Every structure is written in structure tokens, then in C-alpha cells.
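sorry for the late reply, my laptop died twice this morning and i had to redo everyting from scratch. anyway the thing you sent over, i finally got around to it. pasting the sequence first so we're on the same page, its 169 residues, then the predicted structure underneath. double check i copied it right bc i was rushing
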Amino acid sequence: MSTNRVCLPALIHVHYSLYKVLLIAFALSACNFNRADPKIVAQQREAKRREAVVKILTARLEASEEIQGEGIGISGTPSATYESFKLLDGLLSDTAWLQLTYSKSPVMRVYAYQALQKRNKAMTEEVKVRLSHDDASFTMTGGCTSMPNTVRGYVTGTLDSSLFIMVRQ
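ok and here's the structure:
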């Protein structure tokens, strides 16, 4: 006869107790999963706000038909477009600016190029090569002066004289 006999009722009792402990542990952990960490919730809320602001500022720049300096007119009235650019510059990464150099808007492409010029010289060279073939036109306004330009002219530092002939007509 074997001395290693296990009493069946005792085995059932141990199994049932283990089941109860696991069930209670699972229920407690489920309660903790339903409570979101306030810091994470605040970070998510801030990220959504930031994303909304970026969308608004990006849309404003893409809708603009001119690159504006910091001040416009004799009195140097602050430019809403330039302010949008400055705010966006503080919010976007170099990679995001690089993506905006592919925008449909020539104004956005130039503003994106400006941002990259200040931040990431390596990326700027790559973008400059691509944009140096871009003949889309826009107007540059600063102070009391407005003049036509092309994306190509802006990134290569030249002005296309044919644009001035069009203006004179």
C-alpha cells in the first residue's frame, strides 16, 4: 500500500481556495485598470490641445498667399501670419517641418524652409536642392514693401526678373 495518498476532499478544498484567490486578485486588478493616472490624462489632454493648435496655425499659413515679415506697413503693424509662423516654429519638430516642405502651398514650403534653416542645416541642404526647381510664386511683404518671388528664387537667393515684368503690365 502506498503512503502517499491524497485525500480527495482536501485536494478539492485547496483547488477551490486557489480559484477564489485568483478571482479576487483579478477583480482588484481590473478595478485599478479603470482608474487612469491623472498625469497621463493631463498629458493626453495637453497633446490634443497642442495638435489642435498646430492644425489651426498650419491651416492659417497654408491659406496665406504671402510671406510676411515681423511688421507690416509704415508703423510696423505685427503680422498675424508671421506670429503664426513663430508659434508653429516652437511647436513642431524638424521632421514635421521637413514634411511641410512638401505642402501644396508655396508659402508653407518657404516658411518650412525658413524654420529648417534656423534649426537643422543638414536637412536644409536636402530641401534646398528639391525646392530649387520649384517655380511656384508667392508675394513677400515686409514693412512697406511687397514683391513677387518664386520658391526657387527664395531658396537660391535670386529674384526672377520676369516676375517684375508681370507686375508692371
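Residues 10 and 16 are 10 Å apart (CA to CA).
thats about all i looked at so far, will dig more tmrw
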